[in-house]
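Recall the central idea of this unit: under ordinary conditions, the amino acid sequence of a chain determines the structure it adopts. In this exercise we apply that idea directly, starting from the sequence alone.
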Amino acid sequence: MRILIAEDERDLNNILTMKLSDAGYSVDSCLDGSEAILYLQSTEYDLAILDIMMPGSDGFEVLSSLRRSGKKTPVLFLTARDSIQDRVRGLDAGANDYLVKPFSLEELMARVRVLTRTAHGLAQNLLTAGDLSMDIGSREVLRGGKRIELSAKEYQLLEYLLHNKGIALSREKIENHIWNFDYEGGTNVVDVYISYLRRKIDAGQEQKLIRTVRGVGYMLKDVT
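Accordingly, the structure predicted from this sequence is:
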């Protein structure tokens, strides 16, 4: 999952970025609303976390720009103003949820999981393909009942493949979704991490879940 954080309180911004990154999300962050608009215009995000009171453009203006562009990216507002009017205005403008400062990081993480799950049409935290399962709450990955240990990037890649089960994904689309703007690695990074996943997910298995789609990229295919 790729998340944008737009929060002008630098310390809070850093804390949220570290917390989400440690939880396995790919995170971009900025300190003002005008920059947030540019990020949202250039990349597809699974969630945008927006402070309401920001320099450049406030959260309402960022949200308005996002919805005018036709994007349905879930938006979680952060605000120090706990007024009914602000909540109604934000929700009517297309926000999906609100958190009033100060808030618990654990509550934030729970709301992030709900919003990203809902955006992908999931009723629970469990993603499956054949005998492979991923619990996005506990981050436990099992195949045939056996626990599989994954690095943060391997987990992100597998989660993205599971969310798009049966869909051929190009290398470019995978890279843009999993790696943030700070990434300066090699051009074959997707192929490298697909090979890592195959060793852990498919090695020794009669049914291979990760397929190469010639001329396109990769697909996670359910066992039929």
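Residues 82 and 107 are 17 Å apart (CA to CA).
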